[in-house]
Amino acid sequence: MNTSSFLADMLQTISERGRRFLAFNQRESLDDPMGSASALCETLLSSRGEASGMALAKNILDRWRSFDEAEKREFMIMLLDRFGPDTQRLETAIDAYRGHRDASALLELHLAAEPRRQELIRRFNLAPNGIETLVRMREVLLRLTKERPDLSAVDSDFSHLFGSWFNRGFLVLRPISWSTPANILEKIIRYEAVHDIGGWDELRRRLEPEDRRCFAFFHPQLADDPLIFVEVALTRDIPSRIDDLLREDRTVVPKGEATTAVFYSISNCQEGLRGISFGNFLIKQVVEDLRRDLPKLDRFVTLSPVPGFAAWLARERRDEASEALSPAAKAILSVLDDEDWAEDAEKASAVEPVMTAAAAWYFLRARDAAGRTIDPVARFHLGNGARLERLNILGDRSQRALRQAHGLMVNYLYKLDDIEANHEAFAGRREVVTTQQIRRLVPANKPSLSIGSGQGSSSTRQVAINEHASTERTS
């Protein structure tokens, strides 16, 4: 018998039995659903019985699922307004700590400062399928924080608890293959967020050939719903175009001849788990599994999108004081306004060296308001210890990629011996680890990108692979 299924059935039974011991007020006013929900939440917090607690939690979550959008918004505001810290207990704890700064007083201060809704969310999780409902609940909460920024306080409580409940120690890595149950494969099609899967035939091409792999993390309480998955291509070389990996008529590489594992799509599946990091664990675990099963693999790279590049480049083109683009560079990039530029060989050739240099600036110099590397995908891989290895102009000619990044894709190299040092450089000093070839495109003492004879050469039209080139770090 499946263990998680057995536990779910047991929890359901306990919850149903608990209903026998609860005397819910059946005369509650239908005109005040939030007042009723608030009263039930207070009762749940004061409950000491396991069965009655499960039944209460199930009752509240059942109500939540029946709420319309306006009522769900009111529920979140109720959690914010009525289930923060116990202020009287907190003030008492503060006074006690000021008088006696010992471990006992500090512990009480810590406990008193915790919002009551954290314990409430923990008790919601006692209900059958509680974790799934809580993930859906946070999906709603993330939408609401855009109009009600103060609800971020509630979201921080969800994030804090999810960070523990979805800890790597609780996650299960499972390979996804063509023989995986259809209900999971259907979700892989639906959740794919980087390169759309057109249907079952295309999914089969990504899973069945011997040079393809797919892995996903699952949580025991969401056994048939992946949290995140990665698609892997086994190749002989580092690819520069996504079409080389996905086209229908490609040549399959015998797995015994593959030397390179390419992570070409990483998709987070649960919007309610946004910001809860499992991707770094996923890649490292997959690398270990691949090395064990395919000892000839000696390179691990990505072929990654650059979703914010086009928006950044548009801002720099409009900025008369741009440090990234000279007037000459802007003039050449004006062809990007033509819808057919990517299909016109002459226009694409003219743009390529300028865009390559601009892309190097984007990764090495562009920063957000917090001083971080501006590209979110770059932050993920560089934070994991990868190296920015190659810039691929028109690596993806899909409409989405042209709209988001003018077709730019990049390779990040996971060189296992360097991962720790690269991570420390990026996380500790915000330094981007890259190759000499990319670094040369953004001279340290050059205020803006201009067009010279060197930038038009073939060596900069596609930054060459040179695994043995010395690595430079730049802030």
Written description of the protein model:
Helices cover 49% and strands 11% of the residues. It is of the alpha+beta class. It has 3 domains: 3-165, Butyryl-CoA Dehydrogenase, subunit A, domain 3 (Up-down Bundle); 169-302, Aminopeptidase, CATH 3.40.630; 305-474, Aminopeptidase, CATH 3.40.630. The strands form 3 sheets. It has a 5-stranded mixed beta sheet with strand order 1-2-3-4-5, with helices on both faces. A 3-stranded antiparallel beta sheet has the order 6-8-7, with helices on one face. Helix 2 (33-46) crosses helix 4 and helix 7 crosses helix 9. The radius of gyration is 27 Å and the shape is globular.
Mind sketching the topology for me?
Blueprint: H1 3-18, H2 33-46, H3 50-66, H4 69-82, H5 87-99, H6 103-113, H7 116-124, H8 130-144, H9 152-165, E1 172-175, H10 182-191, H11 200-207, E2 212-218, E3 228-235, H12 243-246, E4 260-268, H13 279-293, E5 299-302, E6 304-305, H14 309-318, H15 327-333, H16 345-364, H17 376-383, E7 387-392, H18 399-405, E8 409-413, H19 419-429, E9 432-435, H20 436-440, H21 458-461, E10 471-474
Parallel strand pairs: 4-5
Antiparallel strand pairs: 1-2, 2-3, 3-4, 6-8, 7-8, 9-10
